[in-house]
Amino acid sequence: MNNDKVIQVESLTKMFGDFIAVNDITFDVNKGEIFGFLGANGAGKTTAMKMLIGISKPTFGKAHVAGFDVFTDAENIKKNIGYMSQKFALYDDLTVKENITFFGGIYGLSRKRIKEKANTLIEELGLGNVANQLVGSLPLGWKQKLSFSVSLIHDPKIVFLDEPTGGVDPITRRQFWELIYKAANQGTTIFVTTHYMDEAEYCDRVSIMVNGKIEALDTPKKLKEQFKAANMNDVFLKLARG
């Protein structure tokens, strides 16, 4: 294992019967990198992520996440990563403070540490006025930012974000990416799936999946040069058309 590579994947494959959902993908992710995992719906990116976070066992191949093998050390992977799903993991019938306390406990933090983290998160997110309000009553953008912050509460090495900015306005999306940059600058590796091609421009490197395969992987600048494209959306369209 290379200590600078917090994710290493080699020929990873996932099959459902005769259907190949993820087809022989190979890549690595550097410590502190914002790595974009792009593709249309059904391209296989969420299936690939599920293998990496230890909730779906690969059919073939090799992968190490945070130093642990996805085949044999799934539980240790879960302890060393954060995860934010498309549908958010927060409980609508708990308050902001109760959600933070609950997930802090799930991640094994002490009561003292949970209290410290809760106070810090609430202050940083500007949620002091709604700390005792049910999460279900909050605007979607606030839920997103809170969910992301909760995924970081245990100081994980890597955070996996699955379509984190779906359904929100451009201003909230920009604010969310500011949180991502802050986490990355503090050394957390960000692995983010998205179908918003403009968000690819915010990533250090981008992988583009088409029909279960990685068809391109490089910095946004180099991909645009390679495909003679004005933006990442044009790169994606050229790849999708074959």
TrEMBL record:
Gene3D superfamilies linked: P-loop containing nucleotide triphosphate hydrolases (3.40.50.300)
Topology class, membrane: Multi-pass membrane protein
PROSITE patterns from the UniProt entry: ABC_TRANSPORTER_2
Ranges of residues in domain ABC transporter: 7-236
Cited InterPro entries: AAA+_ATPase, ABC_transporter-like_ATP-bd, P-loop_NTPase
Location relative to the cell: Membrane
Domain of life assignment: Bacteria
Keywords for this protein: ATP-binding, Membrane, Nucleotide-binding, Transmembrane, Transmembrane helix, Transport
Pfam families, per database record: ABC_tran
GO CC annotations on file: membrane
Broad class of where this protein is predominantly found: membrane
Matching SMART domains: AAA
GO molecular function, one term: ATP binding
Protein name according to UniProt: ABC-2 type transport system ATP-binding protein
Organism encoding this protein: Ulvibacter antarcticus
